[in-house]
Design brief:
The protein has 196 residues and is of the alpha/beta class. It has helices at 15-24, 51-60, 64-72, 82-86, 183-195; strands at residues 5-9, 28-32, 43-46, 77-80, 88-92, 104-109, 120-124, 134-138, 143-147, 152-157, 160-166, 169-172. A 7-stranded mixed sheet has the order 2-1-3-4-12-11-10. It has a 3-stranded mixed sheet with strand order 5-6-9.
């Protein structure tokens, strides 16, 4: 497969930026809003945004179970920030009714790095990404409180896990799509090609 087709969940969040980053990483990228649009995708990105709103909209638009099925299918999924929360098996500091898709054996703490006015940028050394640290944009960012044996920690910041991979699911608590550096997206596109 030379040009994989990768969807970006377009219920809420920074969809356009992921579409641009995926295209720069040689993928055919398109927004996804309906269950039937998942059928012919090779991979899926779940963007940053507001995880509670995203999970509610997934229920309203009948996307929750199809998204869970997509994750279970083994096709690659990449979640950034709120997307990391969505692919976590368990959450801390979340509403009792907040739904996740699961896929990574990790416990994620929402808004762990602080509220909107405590957002920051930092250099992040991420395993598997050549060329030095990536520029991490942390906006109301979560961190991974703990991981199970199947989850591989790819990056830490200030002692906290901020990037993980479990099988074909990748998650970062930061936003590489906002930086113009497409190496993390290229890493994910390579995951999609390998899986196919």
């Amino acid at each position: 497969m030379t040009t994989p087709t990768i969807g970006v969940l377009a219920l809420q969040g920074d969809v356009r930026e992921h579409l641009v980053a995926l295209a720069a990483a040689d993928a055919l990228a398109r927004p996804v809003r309906r269950p039937e649009e998942l059928a012919d995708l090779d991979g899926l990105v779940i963007p940053g945004g507001e995880s509670t709103t995203m999970s509610k909209l997934a229920v309203v638009f009948s996307m929750l179970e199809p998204l869970r099925d997509f994750v279970r299918s083994g096709r690659p999924v990449y979640g950034t920030c709120a997307g990391m929360i969505m692919v976590a098996d368990k959450l801390l500091d979340a509403r009792a009714d907040q739904e996740t898709l699961g896929g990574v054996d990790m416990i994620v703490r929402r808004n762990a790095f602080g509220r909107q006015n405590e957002s920051f940028e930092a250099a992040v050394d991420m395993a598997g990404i050549p060329g030095g640290p990536v520029h991490g944009v942390f906006i109301r960012a979560p961190w991974v409180e703990s991981t199970g044996a199947a989850a591989e920690v790819l990056a830490r910041h200030d002692g906290h896990t901020v990037a993980v991979r479990q099988g074909n699911v990748l998650a970062t608590s930061f936003h590489p799509e906002l930086t113009g550096d497409h190496r993390v997206h290229a890493f994910f596109v390579d995951m999609v090609r390998t899986a196919a």
